[in-house]
Design brief:
It contains ten helices and no strands. The protein is mainly α.
Length: 252
């Protein structure tokens, strides 16, 4: 079972390191191992934190991160996620599924319709209005990651694309913000005793390897690789959430 989880973690991190969506692989694997949903979520956050930190470092060393922007937004994502994780202990998160399907579908259609979107960076800094909207969006996505989670990486990338970054820079910036939300959620789950360290740490080590491999492929191949992967993973996320709505008792 541990070997199965390690392989699943590597695959999840390879995908997640670029466009997010790794939870589509790692979370069902943990549930298959017999964990309760709460314990699976906490353990997945531990492993995912290894992955998002590794991806962040890879993109940082390649120069594909806007340091000034993500430094300002990091605490916003962190606080949002901490509040979201706390809220999920009080409220069920399942009611978000229909809304997530709608938002992911709109994002995918918008990305497909705008053929040259994200090919080249047009980002020249933020106005007061775009700064406020970006901050609010980052807080909301951070909260969402702590509260529910699926598609967080895709949502962060979409926001970065909206303010003018190309797909590669958008992916790099998104990984830093996703690391912030993972870290906050991890701390909250740890405080609540919702982590299986025996599975989470080996999976985290496997995710370091997967994230290194995935982010290096993305950096080497550039936007031509990242954009189709973003669309494919988002489409799979939509399908997964629709399936959950049709058959909720047995699926995340």
């Amino acid at each position: 079972m541990l070997l199965f989880l390690i392989v699943a973690a590597f695959v999840a991190a390879f995908i997640d390191s670029t466009v997010g969506g790794g939870g589509l692989v790692s979370l069902p694997a943990l549930l298959f191992a017999g964990m309760t949903p709460q314990l699976a979520l906490g353990t997945n956050k531990l492993a995912a934190s290894f992955s998002s930190l590794t991806s962040t470092v890879s993109f940082l060393f390649s120069g594909k991160i806007d340091r000034k922007l993500v430094l300002a937004l990091f605490p916003v994502s962190f606080i949002g996620s901490a509040l979201g994780t706390y809220t999920v202990t009080l409220l069920p998160s399942g009611f978000l599924k229909p809304l997530v399907v709608i938002l992911l579908t709109l994002m995918t259609v918008y990305t497909l319709v705008r053929k040259n979107w994200g090919i080249r960076s047009t980002y020249r800094g933020l106005t007061f209005k775009t700064a406020a909207l970006t901050g609010l969006s980052t807080f909301a996505i951070g909260f969402y990651d702590g509260f529910f989670g699926p598609g967080t990486g895709s949502f962060f990338i979409f926001v970065m694309l909206l303010i003018g970054f190309d797909f590669l820079f958008a992916a790099g910036n998104a990984k830093v913000l996703n690391f912030a939300s993972n870290l906050a959620s991890l701390i909250m789950f740890g405080a609540l005793g919702g982590i299986h360290y025996g599975y989470g740490i080996p999976m985290g080590i496997a995710m370091i390897a997967g994230a290194l491999a995935g982010s290096r492929v993305a950096i080497r191949k550039g936007t031509a690789y990242v954009k189709p992967l973003f669309i494919a993973v988002t489409a799979i996320l939509i399908g997964k959430q629709l399936w959950d709505l049709i058959a909720p008792p047995h699926h995340w």
